[in-house]
Specification:
- This protein is of the alpha/beta class and 198 residues long.
- The protein is built from 8 helices and 4 strands, in the order βαβαβαβααααα.
- The protein has 2 domains: 122 residues, Rossmann fold (3-Layer(aba) Sandwich), CATH 3.40.50; 63 residues, no CATH class.
- Helix content is 46%, strand content 13%.
- α1 packs parallel to α7.
């Protein structure tokens, strides 16, 4: 199956790297065609044209993935407003809505990463110093998970978390998807990417 994905990041963005990696973990046979639209405003306004292009180029379905509360946090988020705006863009491009699925990550991608403390420990540990991080039981309800990761990185490496580098390292260090399976938005992602119920 060929899946088109639309992201609110740049071509080397953390969302794209993490989601493509996880999609292949869920279904190793999946073929992925991604479009990056740089930011949430562009994603909302341009996703219709992007989805139309992905479907015309052979994607069986398109999954639009965005953070409910992006890190720049200018206004209070509203999932319904985002959804309505995205649907307007899709309808304006006459996209078949039955082939397009929305995945809103609450609050942001880092909620998935903090779900597995084991992976963060692997990334931060050195041969001479094993790092231990407390398990976060409900990562979806952590306010500003990116800020939390930055704090964890500063405490253990004296440098901030860099999503362009560290997000992919963390997801690749996850020994399995068991902890992620407890995150509702990840379960939705798996279902919309590959019809896999976790």
């Amino acid at each position: 199956m060929k899946v088109g994905m639309i992201f609110e990041c740049g071509p080397q963005g953390a969302d794209k790297k993490v989601c493509e990696y996880l999609a292949r973990k869920i279904d190793p046979t999946i073929e992925i065609d991604s479009v990056t639209l740089d930011n949430k405003n562009n994603l909302v306004s341009e996703c219709g044209r992007a989805a139309e292009g992905l479907l015309k180029s052979g994607s069986d379905r398109v999954v639009i993935i965005w953070d409910l509360h992006p890190s720049w946090r200018q206004t209070a988020p509203c999932r319904k407003e985002d959804r309505d705006d995205i649907h307007r863009s899709l309808k304006a491009s006459q996209v078949d809505l039955s082939r397009v699925f929305l995945v809103c990550i609450e609050e942001e991608l880092e909620a998935w990463l903090i779900a597995d403390n084991r992976a963060i420990e692997v990334v931060l540990s050195k041969p001479h110093r094993q790092v231990r991080i407390d398990r976060i039981r409900d990562p979806q309800n952590v306010s500003n998970p990116k800020k939390m990761l930055t704090k964890i990185f500063r405490e253990n490496t004296k440098r901030p978390y860099n999503d362009l580098v560290d997000a992919e390292k963390i997801v690749r260090a996850m020994p399995d998807l068991e902890r992620l399976k407890k995150v509702e938005t990840f379960i939705r992602f798996a279902l919309k990417i590959a019809d896999v119920a976790l």
